[in-house]
Amino acid sequence: MKNDLLLRALKGETIARPPVWMMRQAGRYLPEYRVLREKYGFFERCQTPELACEITLQPIDIVGVDAAILFSDILVVPQAMGLEVQLVESKGPWLPDPIKTESDLKRVRIPDVNETLQYVFDAIRLIKKELNSRAPLIGFAGAPWTILCYMVQGKGSKTFDEAKAFCYTQPELAARLLQMITDTTIAYLKEQVRAGADTVQVFDSWGGLLGPDDFENISLKYIRQIVQALKDEVPVIVFAKGAWHSLKPMADTGAAGLGIDWCITAGNARKFAGDNITLQGNFDPAKLLSPIPVIQQEVRSMIKAFGNKRYIANLGHGILPNVPVDHARAFVDTVKESEVHFAAMP
Amino acid sequence: MKNDLLLRALKGETIARPPVWMMRQAGRYLPEYRVLREKYGFFERCQTPELACEITLQPIDIVGVDAAILFSDILVVPQAMGLEVQLVESKGPWLPDPIKTESDLKRVRIPDVNETLQYVFDAIRLIKKELNSRAPLIGFAGAPWTILCYMVQGKGSKTFDEAKAFCYTQPELAARLLQMITDTTIAYLKEQVRAGADTVQVFDSWGGLLGPDDFENISLKYIRQIVQALKDEVPVIVFAKGAWHSLKPMADTGAAGLGIDWCITAGNARKFAGDNITLQGNFDPAKLLSPIPVIQQEVRSMIKAFGNKRYIANLGHGILPNVPVDHARAFVDTVKESEVHFAAMP
Fold this sequence. Notes:
globular, homodimer, 9 strands, TIM Barrel, seven-stranded parallel β-sheet, alpha/beta, two-stranded antiparallel sheet, about 10% strand
């Protein structure tokens, strides 16, 4: 592979500079993406390998990131498990028949991923061919708790209180559903790897809504199974936004990397997570709306705080749709220029 | 005062049991509140002292909390400063003409609070009379950063990226606006105290959206001024949701109490904040949707973890509208019963 910085960072090698990519880098801030969004529906873009491939490669060519991440959505999993999922542009996900009771659970199945999600693996094979070893490809899935949030609440929420109430009032039912999602996700990620994903990231977007005990019982318990099942095949990155309090148990899962958001300093993240794991993050996505000189200065501070060992430069959450492309490029370029900085260090 | 547990907890006295109140306790989960909501608009309820008084006292009578908190809204401050603020039921706040540029700032003034917010002080005097020393009254205001969020973004947001971008791209303008809000808030809270508020809480609902450095520069710097101006008159409680990383500097402001959310353990909160401050929180509001026996068990665990010294039992955020009243009462009653538990301790 021509650029294997990401994989080397995940292995813990000391490299000339940190690798850089951005969560949601294949997305709405790119005019080239918006052109395709005008022409094709969201799931059409996910389900058509040629479109998914084109979108996945856009940020490699346009902003020069060090890794590609599969263009898809975490909600293809509940879809494959039997639930209807709609993605309404600018309104977010909508599941018309969410899970509320034991009888609702009968509508949910652990699918044969090769039947239901074949289009993802086809996209991965095509992307790998088109990438032609220029950079690694990151596969991904949602964490079971985050998937349950949508399956139960039926839509986005600030609090996901209905999803939580489901777990608190019907804990055995919740455990059964979480285990079904976990089993599906393991099969799904294993097939992503078989199709060519070089590493996988598990996104627990709503992990930060849970207190430490609930995070262990409702989320991390299942993430741990996923990491255990995958970690001998590829390095696994876990990103539970907001779950700073559980960086240590997350590091102990066997993950190779941990995503962190901007609300924790590099020093605290390293202290909490320990030395044997790669940290990934943690630029405030809203800061990409700053003037470019401010972005450059803040990126340099971030890299100085994390260093180039066991570190992957990224945002602390997905890139915002209103970020100018040249600001995203300034972020990436400033990380790349840190090579000079590290070379000059005594 | 017949029940001064809250004030004694804020002073650091060891008491028989922790006092208990709930953020948003005067609100939508109460049928008695919903009756008034049907008849009067939101700001009508805030601006009519008899209505504000009746709503403020409802949770004292109905669920038996140890303190009343003024029924009002943090957005009366931007309203008094010259901006139009609408509160659309179930949609949230809406400011039709938000602040974006230097010329927009000309529409903002530091008002005479006795002219613009007289109705609040009238409500406080009436509440104090009706409370008749049964329990203390908590006054409040939003933190300047949180108020700026609405003034700039114009509505609720998951990320308040436009408010952040305003601070990052026009830092001097942002500092001027933050200082104007701070000056207004100090005058406003001083008059609340003069009218009879026994303590005041500063709500930084969106403090947790800022990284540690930004939190200091954009938020805490101004909260500190407010605490300094008020702390010799009444004990001040600061609640910056999600800002666990800054509990120490927040404790150092001179505040008597710090609100904390449910994503931090009692042990970590005490370790980070130090021993010389009262902690307030931190029950997950969604957990009030659990069956009552689960609520009772979880409340007991919480109190055991915090103890009865320098602690006020509360939620980690506002009570949700869909919480049954008997669940709220179970929360309050379980805290009150802890007196027996503490008495039995060796």
